[in-house]
Amino acid sequence: MGDSPTESVTNQWGQTWDCSNLFVMDAGVFASNPHKNCTLTIMTLAMRNSTWLARQLDKGEL
Fold it and tell me: How many Cα neighbours within 13 Å face the side chain of 16?
């Protein structure tokens, strides 16, 4: 995740820069694999990103 398409694959919402209708909502957005279980973080990111996506769809922006 990042702010620039030249330095990251997705934006802060997990939306890929190259394909605007592709969202990554799993551990694929992590730069490395932590030694701790990150299930709750993955679930939280998925809920956060899904809520944002639903709002964008309701507004007709996506």
Answer: 9
Longest dimension (CA), the chain: 40
Show the tokens assigned to 36.
């701790």
pLDDT in tens, 21-57: 999 988 888 877 777 788 888 899 999 999 999 999 9
| Alpha-carbon gap, residue 58 to 7, rounded angstroms | 30
Q: Around Cβ 6, how many Cβ atoms within 10 Å?
A: 6
pTM: 0.77
* CA 26 and chain centroid, separation: 8
